[in-house]
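S.,

As promised, the fructose -6-phosphate run. Input:
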Amino acid sequence: MRMIQVKTYEELSRKTAAIIAAQVIAKPESILGLATGSSPLGTYANLAEAYRNGDLDFSSVTSVNLDEYVGLTGENDQSYRYFMNTNLFSKINIDPKKTFVPNGCADDVTKECEEYDALIQSLGGIDLQLLGIGLDGHIGFNEPDDCFTKETHRVTLDPSTIEANARFFASIDEVPTEAVTMGMQAIMQAKKVLLIANGQNKKEILEKAFYGPITPQVPASILQLHPDLTVIYSEN
Ligand code: F6R
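Predicted complex:
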């Protein structure tokens, strides 16, 4: 594991974007595993800027996102599909048909989960997976549990996650209580994993996840077993 500590969120975002840019330059047809939430916003802004400057070409890239709320369509401005379209996909030259986010409104969510794993397999797995980390140690929406779940699956969100995500909604009652998330297999099989976190409030969970025991009660701790993990943290 490489732990890179930086001073500011801007520096974190520039470094993270630089690592993703290096991946896309070295392998234009990369499969990028992407995350939503507040942590990657600066990274996505930097990637969009690099594209505008003519330094990056996403035309051969495929993206697979980690998760989506159950019950929100892609048109809902709180959905993760909407987030990705707004903050990244509409600002770069990625082919929209090669951007994948789980469908949280599928009639058959179980089938949707199976198909999402089959899709990732058919793409040959993920080259670089970008992750944030929840205050309870979740990655994607793999919440603390008695075991790690391998496959893409439907989850009930932890009350602490609902509380943390309420900041994006008009009220806490509007936060969906369920999500579809990529499981640990696709994440652990990614060739490279890049986890980013900023703020004093993430310090404790980072210590637990990367310097404590590997346990499904701290889902991110499984990443200690990944052969190519980079964590970038800024206190501010
Ligand atoms: C989002 C995701 C989540 C977030 C985590 C941290 O796609 O998978 O695991 O990365 O909740 O969120 P922020 O970055 O908002 O602190």
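Residues 35-39, 66-67, 80, 132-134, 138-140 surround fructose -6-phosphate (CB under 6 Å). The mean pLDDT is 97.

- D.
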